[in-house]
Amino acid sequence: MSLRAYLAFARGGGTTRPDGQIPQSDEPRPGNGPVVLAHAETEEAGRALSVFCTRLESLRPEIQILKTGAGAADAPPETPADTARFAERWRPALAFFTGQHLRPAFLAALQETGTRLTLIGARDAAFSHPGQRWLPDPLPTTLTLFDRIFTATPGAARRLRRLGVADEVLRDGAELRETGLPLPVSDRLLEEMSALLSPRPVWLAARLRADEADVILRAHRAAVRLAHRLLLIVVPQDREDHARIAPMVAASGMRCCRWEDGDMPDENTQIVLAEDTADLGLWYRLAPLAFLGGSLVAGSGGTNPLEAAALGTAVLYGPNIGRHLPVYSQLAELGAARIVRDADSLSGAVSQLIAPDRAASMAHAGWDVATAGAALIDAVCDDACEALDAREAR
Predict the structure, then answer these.
(1) Is-above-0.85 flag for pTM?
(2) Burial 289-307 (b: 16+ CB within 10 A, else e)
(3) Which domain holds residue 21?
(4) Which terminus, N or C, of the chain has the lesser number of Cβ atoms within 10 Å?
(5) What's the rounded Cα separation, in Å, for the pair 84 and 107?
(6) CA 306 from centre of chain
(7) What angle do CA 268, 282, 370 make, to 5 degrees?
(8) Is there a contact between 30 and 50 (Cβ–Cβ < 8 Å)?
(9) Tens-digit pLDDT profile for residues 275-311
(10) 364 and 224 housed in the same domain
Protein backbone atom coordinates (compact mmCIF):
# COMPACT_ATOMS: atom_id res chain seq x y z
CA MET A 1 0.00 0.00 0.00
CA SER A 2 2.88 2.40 0.73
CA LEU A 3 4.35 1.96 -2.75
CA ARG A 4 0.90 2.32 -4.30
CA ALA A 5 0.38 5.57 -2.41
CA TYR A 6 3.73 6.88 -3.62
CA LEU A 7 2.93 5.99 -7.23
CA ALA A 8 -0.51 7.51 -6.98
CA PHE A 9 0.95 10.77 -5.70
CA ALA A 10 3.74 10.74 -8.34
CA ARG A 11 1.19 10.17 -11.10
CA GLY A 12 0.08 13.79 -10.84
CA GLY A 13 3.23 15.03 -12.55
CA GLY A 14 3.32 12.52 -15.39
CA THR A 15 2.23 12.46 -18.99
CA THR A 16 -0.62 9.98 -18.81
CA ARG A 17 -3.25 10.57 -21.53
CA PRO A 18 -6.82 11.61 -20.61
CA ASP A 19 -8.00 8.04 -21.23
CA GLY A 20 -5.59 6.83 -18.51
CA GLN A 21 -3.24 5.02 -20.92
CA ILE A 22 0.52 5.52 -20.93
CA PRO A 23 1.80 7.03 -24.20
CA GLN A 24 4.44 4.92 -25.92
CA SER A 25 7.49 6.19 -27.78
CA ASP A 26 7.47 5.72 -31.54
CA GLU A 27 11.23 5.21 -31.50
CA PRO A 28 12.34 1.56 -31.64
CA ARG A 29 14.87 0.34 -29.14
CA PRO A 30 18.35 0.64 -30.68
CA GLY A 31 20.32 -2.56 -31.40
CA ASN A 32 19.57 -6.21 -30.82
CA GLY A 33 21.67 -7.26 -27.83
CA PRO A 34 20.52 -7.25 -24.21
CA VAL A 35 20.47 -3.78 -22.67
CA VAL A 36 22.24 -3.26 -19.34
CA LEU A 37 21.24 -0.10 -17.48
CA ALA A 38 23.74 1.54 -15.10
CA HIS A 39 22.35 4.36 -12.95
CA ALA A 40 24.72 6.38 -10.75
CA GLU A 41 23.71 8.61 -7.85
CA THR A 42 26.96 10.63 -7.89
CA GLU A 43 29.72 11.36 -10.41
CA GLU A 44 32.16 9.33 -8.29
CA ALA A 45 29.79 6.36 -8.43
CA GLY A 46 29.38 6.99 -12.15
CA ARG A 47 33.12 6.59 -12.73
CA ALA A 48 33.13 3.37 -10.70
CA LEU A 49 30.15 2.06 -12.68
CA SER A 50 31.96 2.93 -15.93
CA VAL A 51 34.80 0.62 -14.90
CA PHE A 52 32.24 -2.09 -14.13
CA CYS A 53 30.56 -1.57 -17.52
CA THR A 54 33.89 -1.80 -19.36
CA ARG A 55 34.68 -5.02 -17.54
CA LEU A 56 31.23 -6.49 -18.26
CA GLU A 57 31.44 -5.53 -21.95
CA SER A 58 34.76 -7.35 -22.23
CA LEU A 59 33.06 -10.49 -20.86
CA ARG A 60 29.79 -10.10 -22.77
CA PRO A 61 30.43 -8.08 -25.96
CA GLU A 62 26.84 -8.61 -27.15
CA ILE A 63 25.36 -6.31 -24.51
CA GLN A 64 24.43 -2.65 -24.91
CA ILE A 65 25.26 -0.34 -22.00
CA LEU A 66 22.81 2.44 -21.16
CA LYS A 67 24.07 4.91 -18.53
CA THR A 68 21.83 7.32 -16.63
CA GLY A 69 22.22 9.55 -13.61
CA ALA A 70 25.18 11.68 -12.56
CA GLY A 71 27.60 12.35 -15.39
CA ALA A 72 25.42 10.51 -17.94
CA ALA A 73 22.03 10.74 -19.65
CA ASP A 74 19.06 11.89 -17.61
CA ALA A 75 16.88 9.19 -16.14
CA PRO A 76 13.15 9.59 -16.82
CA PRO A 77 11.13 11.87 -14.52
CA GLU A 78 9.96 10.06 -11.39
CA THR A 79 6.37 9.53 -12.55
CA PRO A 80 4.65 6.23 -13.40
CA ALA A 81 3.94 7.36 -16.97
CA ASP A 82 7.46 8.56 -17.80
CA THR A 83 9.25 5.68 -16.13
CA ALA A 84 6.92 3.12 -17.73
CA ARG A 85 7.52 4.60 -21.18
CA PHE A 86 11.29 4.49 -20.60
CA ALA A 87 11.16 0.88 -19.38
CA GLU A 88 8.92 -0.18 -22.25
CA ARG A 89 11.22 1.32 -24.84
CA TRP A 90 14.52 0.00 -23.50
CA ARG A 91 13.41 -3.17 -21.67
CA PRO A 92 16.79 -3.63 -19.94
CA ALA A 93 17.73 -7.19 -19.12
CA LEU A 94 19.70 -5.98 -16.11
CA ALA A 95 19.80 -2.69 -14.21
CA PHE A 96 22.40 -1.59 -11.66
CA PHE A 97 21.86 1.20 -9.15
CA THR A 98 24.12 2.85 -6.59
CA GLY A 99 23.60 4.89 -3.44
CA GLN A 100 20.96 5.33 -0.79
CA HIS A 101 18.56 7.57 -2.75
CA LEU A 102 15.97 5.28 -4.34
CA ARG A 103 13.48 6.09 -7.09
CA PRO A 104 10.48 3.86 -6.42
CA ALA A 105 8.56 4.67 -9.63
CA PHE A 106 11.60 4.03 -11.81
CA LEU A 107 12.40 0.74 -10.07
CA ALA A 108 8.79 -0.44 -10.16
CA ALA A 109 8.50 0.32 -13.88
CA LEU A 110 11.68 -1.60 -14.66
CA GLN A 111 10.59 -4.61 -12.61
CA GLU A 112 7.23 -4.57 -14.40
CA THR A 113 8.98 -5.08 -17.75
CA GLY A 114 11.10 -7.96 -16.42
CA THR A 115 14.35 -6.15 -15.60
CA ARG A 116 16.56 -7.81 -13.00
CA LEU A 117 17.49 -5.12 -10.45
CA THR A 118 20.77 -4.89 -8.52
CA LEU A 119 21.84 -2.38 -5.88
CA ILE A 120 25.61 -2.03 -5.45
CA GLY A 121 27.45 -0.84 -2.34
CA ALA A 122 24.49 -0.36 0.00
CA ARG A 123 25.72 1.34 3.18
CA ASP A 124 24.61 1.25 6.79
CA ALA A 125 22.78 4.56 6.39
CA ALA A 126 19.22 5.73 5.92
CA PHE A 127 17.65 5.38 2.48
CA SER A 128 15.72 8.26 0.95
CA HIS A 129 13.27 8.86 -1.91
CA PRO A 130 11.98 11.94 -3.76
CA GLY A 131 8.41 11.72 -2.45
CA GLN A 132 6.69 13.73 0.23
CA ARG A 133 7.45 12.82 3.84
CA TRP A 134 3.79 12.69 4.85
CA LEU A 135 3.21 9.74 2.49
CA PRO A 136 3.44 6.19 3.86
CA ASP A 137 7.08 5.15 3.60
CA PRO A 138 7.57 3.28 0.26
CA LEU A 139 11.19 2.32 0.95
CA PRO A 140 10.74 -1.13 2.57
CA THR A 141 8.57 -2.28 -0.35
CA THR A 142 10.89 -0.61 -2.86
CA LEU A 143 13.91 -2.44 -1.47
CA THR A 144 12.17 -5.78 -2.00
CA LEU A 145 12.07 -5.02 -5.73
CA PHE A 146 15.80 -5.70 -5.95
CA ASP A 147 16.86 -9.18 -7.04
CA ARG A 148 20.37 -8.68 -5.63
CA ILE A 149 21.90 -6.22 -3.17
CA PHE A 150 25.66 -6.03 -2.58
CA THR A 151 26.26 -4.55 0.86
CA ALA A 152 29.22 -2.40 1.83
CA THR A 153 29.33 -3.51 5.49
CA PRO A 154 27.78 -6.12 7.82
CA GLY A 155 25.81 -3.27 9.39
CA ALA A 156 24.20 -2.54 6.02
CA ALA A 157 23.06 -6.16 5.75
CA ARG A 158 21.48 -6.01 9.21
CA ARG A 159 19.66 -2.77 8.33
CA LEU A 160 18.31 -4.30 5.11
CA ARG A 161 17.09 -7.42 6.90
CA ARG A 162 15.18 -5.22 9.34
CA LEU A 163 13.58 -3.49 6.35
CA GLY A 164 12.33 -6.83 5.03
CA VAL A 165 14.97 -7.79 2.46
CA ALA A 166 15.39 -11.56 2.22
CA ASP A 167 18.75 -13.17 3.03
CA GLU A 168 18.99 -14.79 -0.40
CA VAL A 169 19.00 -11.35 -2.02
CA LEU A 170 21.98 -10.08 0.02
CA ARG A 171 25.62 -10.54 -0.90
CA ASP A 172 28.68 -9.36 1.01
CA GLY A 173 30.47 -6.64 -0.90
CA ALA A 174 32.37 -3.43 -0.23
CA GLU A 175 32.21 0.29 -0.85
CA LEU A 176 31.76 0.99 -4.54
CA ARG A 177 34.96 2.73 -5.62
CA GLU A 178 36.52 3.63 -8.89
CA THR A 179 39.22 1.14 -9.73
CA GLY A 180 41.89 0.90 -12.40
CA LEU A 181 41.67 -1.55 -15.28
CA PRO A 182 45.18 -2.50 -16.50
CA LEU A 183 45.87 -1.22 -20.01
CA PRO A 184 46.73 -3.98 -22.51
CA VAL A 185 50.24 -4.82 -23.66
CA SER A 186 52.00 -7.19 -26.03
CA ASP A 187 53.82 -9.75 -23.87
CA ARG A 188 56.49 -10.20 -26.55
CA LEU A 189 57.18 -6.47 -26.80
CA LEU A 190 57.19 -6.08 -23.02
CA GLU A 191 59.76 -8.85 -22.65
CA GLU A 192 61.96 -7.36 -25.37
CA MET A 193 61.83 -3.82 -24.01
CA SER A 194 62.31 -4.94 -20.41
CA ALA A 195 65.53 -6.68 -21.37
CA LEU A 196 66.66 -3.65 -23.34
CA LEU A 197 65.97 -1.06 -20.63
CA SER A 198 66.51 -3.06 -17.44
CA PRO A 199 69.98 -1.63 -16.68
CA ARG A 200 68.67 1.96 -16.87
CA PRO A 201 66.52 4.18 -14.64
CA VAL A 202 63.36 5.13 -16.57
CA TRP A 203 60.61 7.68 -16.00
CA LEU A 204 57.56 8.50 -18.04
CA ALA A 205 55.61 11.61 -19.02
CA ALA A 206 52.19 10.16 -19.84
CA ARG A 207 49.39 11.89 -21.77
CA LEU A 208 51.56 14.97 -22.03
CA ARG A 209 50.07 18.17 -23.41
CA ALA A 210 52.22 20.37 -25.64
CA ASP A 211 52.03 23.30 -23.20
CA GLU A 212 53.66 21.12 -20.53
CA ALA A 213 56.50 19.76 -22.65
CA ASP A 214 59.00 22.54 -21.94
CA VAL A 215 58.73 21.92 -18.18
CA ILE A 216 59.22 18.18 -18.67
CA LEU A 217 62.26 18.61 -20.92
CA ARG A 218 63.92 21.12 -18.57
CA ALA A 219 63.28 18.81 -15.61
CA HIS A 220 64.77 15.86 -17.46
CA ARG A 221 67.86 17.82 -18.46
CA ALA A 222 68.42 18.75 -14.80
CA ALA A 223 67.83 15.20 -13.55
CA VAL A 224 70.22 13.73 -16.12
CA ARG A 225 73.04 15.76 -14.54
CA LEU A 226 72.60 13.64 -11.40
CA ALA A 227 71.84 10.34 -13.16
CA HIS A 228 73.45 10.40 -16.58
CA ARG A 229 71.81 7.13 -17.72
CA LEU A 230 68.29 8.34 -16.90
CA LEU A 231 65.81 7.76 -19.74
CA LEU A 232 62.60 9.73 -20.31
CA ILE A 233 59.65 8.27 -22.26
CA VAL A 234 57.33 10.95 -23.63
CA VAL A 235 53.78 9.91 -24.56
CA PRO A 236 51.70 12.82 -25.91
CA GLN A 237 47.97 12.92 -25.25
CA ASP A 238 47.23 12.78 -28.99
CA ARG A 239 48.84 13.31 -32.38
CA GLU A 240 48.15 17.04 -32.35
CA ASP A 241 50.20 17.35 -29.17
CA HIS A 242 52.84 15.12 -30.73
CA ALA A 243 53.14 17.45 -33.72
CA ARG A 244 53.95 20.31 -31.36
CA ILE A 245 56.12 18.34 -28.93
CA ALA A 246 58.38 16.66 -31.52
CA PRO A 247 60.13 19.91 -32.60
CA MET A 248 60.65 20.84 -28.95
CA VAL A 249 62.35 17.50 -28.28
CA ALA A 250 64.52 17.95 -31.36
CA ALA A 251 65.47 21.48 -30.27
CA SER A 252 66.42 20.27 -26.79
CA GLY A 253 69.65 18.79 -28.07
CA MET A 254 69.06 15.56 -26.16
CA ARG A 255 69.39 12.30 -28.08
CA CYS A 256 65.94 11.08 -29.07
CA CYS A 257 64.49 7.80 -30.32
CA ARG A 258 61.23 8.23 -32.30
CA TRP A 259 59.05 5.22 -31.50
CA GLU A 260 56.66 5.66 -34.45
CA ASP A 261 59.63 5.40 -36.86
CA GLY A 262 60.46 1.95 -35.54
CA ASP A 263 63.57 3.15 -33.69
CA MET A 264 64.75 1.30 -30.59
CA PRO A 265 66.58 3.06 -27.75
CA ASP A 266 70.28 2.36 -27.25
CA GLU A 267 72.75 3.25 -24.51
CA ASN A 268 73.02 6.84 -25.76
CA THR A 269 69.28 7.52 -26.00
CA GLN A 270 68.01 10.10 -23.52
CA ILE A 271 64.39 10.41 -24.67
CA VAL A 272 61.95 7.99 -26.29
CA LEU A 273 59.18 9.92 -28.07
CA ALA A 274 55.97 8.01 -28.82
CA GLU A 275 53.37 9.33 -31.24
CA ASP A 276 50.27 8.67 -29.13
CA THR A 277 48.89 6.57 -26.28
CA ALA A 278 48.55 3.31 -28.25
CA ASP A 279 51.39 1.65 -26.28
CA LEU A 280 50.75 3.37 -22.94
CA GLY A 281 50.20 -0.01 -21.26
CA LEU A 282 53.78 -0.92 -22.23
CA TRP A 283 55.30 2.32 -20.97
CA TYR A 284 53.55 2.18 -17.59
CA ARG A 285 54.93 -1.31 -17.06
CA LEU A 286 58.46 -0.23 -17.94
CA ALA A 287 58.60 3.02 -15.95
CA PRO A 288 58.45 2.83 -12.15
CA LEU A 289 57.72 6.57 -12.00
CA ALA A 290 55.37 8.66 -14.16
CA PHE A 291 54.36 12.28 -14.43
CA LEU A 292 50.70 12.42 -15.52
CA GLY A 293 49.95 15.09 -18.08
CA GLY A 294 47.14 17.60 -18.27
CA SER A 295 47.91 18.64 -14.70
CA LEU A 296 50.42 21.48 -15.07
CA VAL A 297 48.20 23.65 -17.25
CA ALA A 298 44.65 24.72 -16.47
CA GLY A 299 41.72 23.47 -18.51
CA SER A 300 42.66 19.85 -19.19
CA GLY A 301 41.36 18.38 -15.94
CA GLY A 302 44.28 16.04 -15.47
CA THR A 303 44.66 12.31 -16.06
CA ASN A 304 43.00 9.56 -14.04
CA PRO A 305 45.88 8.32 -11.83
CA LEU A 306 44.38 4.87 -11.39
CA GLU A 307 45.51 3.80 -14.86
CA ALA A 308 49.11 4.27 -13.69
CA ALA A 309 48.59 2.97 -10.16
CA ALA A 310 46.90 -0.20 -11.44
CA LEU A 311 50.14 -1.11 -13.20
CA GLY A 312 52.45 -0.41 -10.26
CA THR A 313 53.67 3.02 -11.33
CA ALA A 314 54.37 5.78 -8.80
CA VAL A 315 52.68 9.07 -9.69
CA LEU A 316 53.81 12.68 -10.04
CA TYR A 317 51.25 15.32 -10.95
CA GLY A 318 50.64 19.04 -11.22
CA PRO A 319 48.05 21.16 -9.38
CA ASN A 320 45.34 21.18 -12.08
CA ILE A 321 43.67 17.80 -11.61
CA GLY A 322 40.01 18.80 -11.77
CA ARG A 323 37.50 16.02 -11.31
CA HIS A 324 40.18 13.51 -10.24
CA LEU A 325 41.03 15.46 -7.08
CA PRO A 326 39.56 12.89 -4.61
CA VAL A 327 41.63 10.04 -6.06
CA TYR A 328 44.84 12.07 -6.20
CA SER A 329 44.25 13.20 -2.62
CA GLN A 330 43.85 9.61 -1.48
CA LEU A 331 47.01 8.55 -3.30
CA ALA A 332 48.98 11.49 -1.92
CA GLU A 333 47.80 10.78 1.62
CA LEU A 334 49.08 7.22 1.37
CA GLY A 335 52.39 8.30 -0.15
CA ALA A 336 51.63 6.92 -3.61
CA ALA A 337 51.65 10.28 -5.42
CA ARG A 338 53.48 13.60 -5.10
CA ILE A 339 52.53 17.00 -6.44
CA VAL A 340 55.02 19.10 -8.46
CA ARG A 341 54.59 22.65 -9.70
CA ASP A 342 57.50 23.47 -12.01
CA ALA A 343 60.65 22.10 -13.62
CA ASP A 344 62.73 22.43 -10.44
CA SER A 345 60.30 20.54 -8.19
CA LEU A 346 59.76 17.93 -10.90
CA SER A 347 63.48 17.29 -11.46
CA GLY A 348 63.99 17.06 -7.70
CA ALA A 349 61.14 14.56 -7.33
CA VAL A 350 62.44 12.44 -10.20
CA SER A 351 65.96 12.40 -8.77
CA GLN A 352 64.70 11.35 -5.33
CA LEU A 353 62.05 8.84 -6.35
CA ILE A 354 63.71 7.08 -9.27
CA ALA A 355 65.57 4.91 -6.76
CA PRO A 356 63.99 1.45 -7.00
CA ASP A 357 63.10 1.17 -3.31
CA ARG A 358 61.42 4.61 -3.19
CA ALA A 359 59.39 4.06 -6.36
CA ALA A 360 58.40 0.55 -5.28
CA SER A 361 57.09 1.80 -1.93
CA MET A 362 54.96 4.44 -3.65
CA ALA A 363 53.76 2.00 -6.29
CA HIS A 364 52.66 -0.57 -3.70
CA ALA A 365 50.52 2.00 -1.90
CA GLY A 366 49.03 3.14 -5.21
CA TRP A 367 48.24 -0.40 -6.28
CA ASP A 368 46.25 -0.93 -3.08
CA VAL A 369 44.10 2.10 -3.92
CA ALA A 370 43.73 1.20 -7.60
CA THR A 371 42.54 -2.33 -6.88
CA ALA A 372 40.44 -1.65 -3.76
CA GLY A 373 37.17 -1.98 -5.66
CA ALA A 374 38.25 -4.78 -7.99
CA ALA A 375 36.85 -7.65 -5.90
CA LEU A 376 33.41 -6.04 -5.76
CA ILE A 377 33.38 -5.36 -9.50
CA ASP A 378 34.42 -8.95 -10.20
CA ALA A 379 31.64 -10.26 -7.95
CA VAL A 380 29.00 -8.07 -9.60
CA CYS A 381 30.24 -9.09 -13.06
CA ASP A 382 30.02 -12.78 -12.14
CA ASP A 383 26.49 -12.28 -10.85
CA ALA A 384 25.53 -10.37 -14.01
CA CYS A 385 26.92 -13.05 -16.31
CA GLU A 386 25.02 -15.77 -14.43
CA ALA A 387 21.83 -13.74 -14.79
CA LEU A 388 22.40 -13.23 -18.53
CA ASP A 389 23.08 -16.95 -18.99
CA ALA A 390 19.88 -17.82 -17.14
CA ARG A 391 17.95 -15.33 -19.27
CA GLU A 392 19.28 -16.88 -22.50
CA ALA A 393 18.41 -20.37 -21.28
CA ARG A 394 14.72 -19.47 -20.80
Answers:
(1) no
(2) bbbbbbbbeeebebbbbbb
(3) 2-179+374-393
(4) C
(5) 10
(6) 8
(7) 125
(8) no
(9) 999 999 999 999 999 999 999 988 888 999 999 999 9
(10) yes
